[in-house]
Design a protein that fits this description.
Elements: H1 3-6, E1 11-12, E2 18-19, E3 25-29, H2 34-48, E4 52-56, H3 60-66, E5 78-80, E6 86-88, H4 89-97, H5 104-109, H6 115-128, H7 144-157
Length: about 160
């Protein structure tokens, strides 16, 4: 969509507060993820002071805005920028970091060619394991046979 359309469209949050695009950014996170909730809790004030609000990916208006089907959840967090772009994962985090003076350099380093590969790999690993980090695992336990199989195949697949 172009910018002119965004000047007309607005979204509603669960608190029935009208949000007009172009005013600030929205960071969308997995509300069921304990790591995501803790991270948002720790960083919310820093980013909200710079015009970045947070909303759960499970929120109806977020699902509609991102075009998600019922029960569908992206593999990464999403960011809706004031100009209407949707960024994801480490690119979104780098964009957010560049809005904070003392995190600006980190935001730049995250997207430098070469370092961006490390950033993406690290982000994807955390995102894949987000339900089992921080001494909390919401996934069913893996059987001992399956655990041995995964260890063997992981070793064999390592370049």
């Amino acid at each position: 969509m172009n910018r002119h359309v965004w000047q007309i469209i607005s979204a509603m949050t669960e608190n029935n507060v009208q949000i007009a695009p172009g005013k600030g950014a929205w960071a969308f996170y997995d509300h069921r993820c304990p790591v995501c909730r803790a991270t948002v809790g720790r960083w919310r004030r820093v980013f909200e002071a710079r015009g970045i609000e947070f909303a759960a990916l499970q929120s109806p208006w977020v699902r509609e805005r991102l075009g998600l089907a019922s029960g569908e959840l992206p593999d990464e967090m999403k960011l809706l920028t004031p100009d209407g772009r949707i960024l994801g994962g480490p690119i979104a985090i780098a964009w957010m970091c560049r809005k904070v003076l003392w995190l600006w350099l980190l935001g730049v380093l995250m997207v430098i060619p070469g370092l961006d590969v490390v950033t993406r790999w690290t982000y994807q690993w955390v995102a894949r394991n987000r339900y089992c980090l921080g001494d909390v695992c919401t996934l069913p336990p893996i059987s001992e046979d399956r655990r041995r199989h995964l260890a063997a195949t992981t070793f064999l697949e390592t370049p």
